[in-house]
Amino acid sequence: MNKLNFIVTGTGRCGTVYLAKLLTSVGIPCGHESIFRCKGGVETFPERLKHQVFISTRSTEYENWLTTPFVKADSSYLSAPFLNDPLLKDTKIIHLVRNPIRVIFSFCESFNYFTIKRYPFFCEETFIHKTLLKEGVDLTLLDDPILRATMFYIKWNELIERQCHTKESIFHKIEDDIKYVLNFVNKPRAKNYFMDKRANTHRHNIFSKTIHDIPDSKEKDALIEKSLSYGYDLFNEPKPPRMMFM
User: Fold this and answer.
1) CATH number of the domain that 104 lies in?
2) Which whole number is the average pLDDT over 219-234?
């Protein structure tokens, strides 16, 4: 059985491609949804871990950055339900988060997730719904796609948090200094590492959404509380720079 040294997990749209490229650049080959991916069923990850059956330098669906067919890390939000699997007992976890407003509207506007017409036909979204149903959360009971995405952000991160209590892990905000991640992966002196946080497939010139674009609701209140616990003050955000990735 091949071993994963690290898993990067989060909600998606939070910088997982960036972290995959960064880890690879410091000598830790890391794919993006290479082991934990929807194609073939996320639950079949043990077979991919055993055989690394993708056997190519395909790092993600859109581009390649690996120079070896075998990875030592995988960066995938789809890994979230499996962090305490016995096969991953020695795997260290990087819990990656990003400003929730960026995540929520990236899913709703760039990916068209959390809309009734797309559920249950889109594999990753179906996986999200089924996973949260096991947690007692039915996103389809919420009428507004933005509120469904809001509840997803909260509950998916909480799913990760509960498992990280029993794992060697680090909590990292994508907006923070990457040196904490480099220390965690035992690469504190790394130089010339990948630094482009916009490393993703959906970029937009200007991002203008704020907390006021989320409908008033108990879900919004819960998001504000969760965001503050992560260090995000959604009512006093700095003006986002141009070309913020969605």
Assistant:
1) 3.40.50
2) 98
Q: What is the pLDDT of residue 82?
A: 97
CB 207 within 8 A of CB 246: yes
Hey, CA dihedral for 195, 168, 37, 120, is it positive or negative?
negative
Residues ≥6 apart with Cβ < 8 Å to 89: none
The answer to whether position 86 is within a domain reads yes
In a domain, 243, yes or no: no
Q: What are phi and psi of 11, to 5 degrees?
A: -90, -10
**What does the block give as tokens for 224?**
């504000």
Q: Which amino acid is at 217?
A: S
Strands (E) in the chain, as ranges, are: 6-9, 30-32, 73-75, 92-97, 169-173
C-alpha closest to that of 214 among 234, 238, 233, 239: 234
The answer to whether 31 and 61 are in contact (CB under 8 A) is no
Query: What pTM value is reported for the model?
Result: 0.90
In a domain, 180, yes or no: yes
Residue 128 has pLDDT above 60, yes or no: yes
Domain span holding position 64: 6-230
